[in-house]
Design brief:
Length: about 140
C-alpha cells in the first residue's frame, strides 16, 4: 500500500507505462525484411541529355562562386585581424572562407584542364580516323 511518509513511491507507480502484449511476448527479435534496389547505370550520353550538358561546365560555375567566396574570406579575415581577434570565431570563419574559395578555384582549374585534355584526345582520335580512312581510299 501507499505509505504517506513515502510520497515518491506513488509517483514511481504513476510514472510507469503499462506493458503491451506485443512488448511482453517479444522475446525473439524478428529478422527485418530486406529490400534490394537496382540502380541503373547511366552513360555519358544519357547524362548529357538529362542535364542539358551542364555536367561539362563545372569550371564555368565554380569560378564565380570561388571568386565570391575568396573575396568574402579576404574581407572577413581582414576585419577579424584588424580588431586583433586572433583565434576568435570570426577569424576562423574567415580562414575557412579563404580556404573554400581557394579550393573552388583550384577545382575549377582542374576541371578546365581535364576538359582541354578530353578535347585534345577527341581531336587526335578524329584525325587518326581521317588518316586511316584516307589510306583505305587510296589503297
Amino acid at each position: 500500500m501507499l505509505d504517506p511518509a513515502m510520497p515518491e513511491e506513488a509517483n514511481k507507480d504513476a510514472m510507469r507505462t503499462p506493458v503491451t502484449p506485443e512488448k511482453a511476448s517479444n522475446n525473439d527479435h524478428p529478422t527485418p525484411a530486406m529490400t534490394t534496389v537496382n540502380v541503373p547505370l547511366v552513360n555519358e550520353v544519357q547524362l548529357t541529355a538529362a542535364t542539358g550538358g551542364a555536367e561539362l561546365s563545372c569550371y564555368r560555375c565554380t569560378i564565380p562562386f570561388g571568386v565570391v567566396v575568396l573575396i568574402a574570406g579576404i574581407v572577413v579575415t581582414a576585419v577579424a585581424y584588424s580588431f586583433n581577434s586572433h583565434g576568435s570565431t570570426i577569424s576562423y570563419f574567415g580562414l575557412v572562407l579563404l580556404s573554400a574559395g581557394l579550393v573552388l578555384l583550384a577545382s575549377s582549374a582542374v576541371c578546365w584542364k581535364v576538359r582541354l585534355e578530353r578535347k585534345k584526345e577527341r581531336r587526335r582520335e578524329s584525325q587518326t580516323a581521317l588518316v586511316a580512312n584516307r589510306r583505305s581510299i587510296f589503297t
